[in-house]
Design goal:
mainly alpha; two-stranded antiparallel ribbon; 9 helices; 2 strands; elongated; transmembrane; membrane; transmembrane helix
Length: 277
């Protein structure tokens, strides 16, 4: 029997539990400091984390493709398996496209063609992952396999709470900031914040104290809400991915330890033992 990879899901579980949330929240903190004008947008740490997160995204993308392919080989030949294999081919194709588009997107974030291509590939991966998870849940329910159902549910949640698509929102924010800074290079972070409400630096200076206080209060509340929501997505995605990889490793361990029942009997006319599977 073909042995299943156990170390790979364990490595991915460690990355999803420790490395991914720390790197993501660290990058988000640096981006917030850049937005407030407390840190240069060309900060070395920010650039390195941006590249590292893009590389980490591809690791998880190809890791899922590899693990799902190995998992499919453990299933019996049934119609549900053929459907899941078709969806897996879509995931593998999209992973190849993302391997090309993700580095280009990191280098040329303002290029519309690359932005559109990356967004399309990511959306297809998102939908294909959800569909694969639903098919697997249906397969597990029919076979009354609780471990397999838990794997499918964790996989679905990891795709549902995936925050990688927020990269597109960051690009839009960067373009908005660049547009405001072209008007005034010394624009403060407060002016950049108010620019999201459609206020130019000149209009910002003409606001009375009451209006300014109201806009600032709403802006801070919106930013705090967005920060909490994003942090929640990061934590939920990391937790779901961790559970999925741990369950996959447990499933593979069981498959590797499985041995078919063997009965032995002696041939009537010979002392040689015959194995019957």
């Amino acid at each position: 029997m073909r042995r299943q990879p156990v170390k790979i899901p364990i490595i991915l579980a460690i990355l999803s539990a420790l490395v991914l949330p720390i790197a993501t929240l660290g990058y988000a903190g640096l981006y917030a400091m850049e937005f407030a004008g407390l840190l240069s947008i060309f900060s070395t740490a920010s650039i390195l984390l941006d590249v590292f997160l893009a590389f980490l995204f591809l690791i998880f993308t190809w890791g899922n493709v590899y693990l799902l392919h190995a998992f499919l080989h453990t299933l019996p030949e049934l119609p549900e398996k053929r459907k899941m294999f078709i969806v897996w081919k879509v995931l593998a194709f999209v992973a190849g496209a993302l391997s090309l588009l993700t580095p280009l997107y990191s280098i040329f974030p303002d290029a519309f063609g690359i932005l559109f291509g990356w967004s399309l590939a990511y959306s297809i991966e998102f939908l294909a992952g959800i569909i694969f998870s639903c098919l697997l849940m249906r397969f597990a329910l029919r076979g009354r396999n609780s471990l397999m159902f838990a794997m499918a549910l964790a996989l679905a949640l990891s795709y549902a709470f995936d925050f990688s698509g927020c990269r597109v929102l960051q690009t839009q924010m960067d373009q908005e900031i660049a547009a405001v800074q072209t008007l005034d290079e010394e624009t403060s972070g407060e002016c950049l914040l108010l620019s999201l409400w459609g206020l130019s630096p000149v209009e910002f200076e003409t606001l009375d104290e009451a209006s300014l206080a109201d806009v600032q209060e709403i802006s801070v509340g919106v930013l705090l809400g967005a920060a909490v929501l994003f942090a929640g997505f990061v934590i939920l995605h990391s937790a779901a991915a961790l559970v999925f990889y741990v369950l996959v490793s447990l499933y593979f361990v069981r498959k590797n330890a499985y041995r078919p029942n063997v009965k032995w009997r002696r041939h009537r006319h010979s002392k040689q033992e015959v194995q019957i599977c």
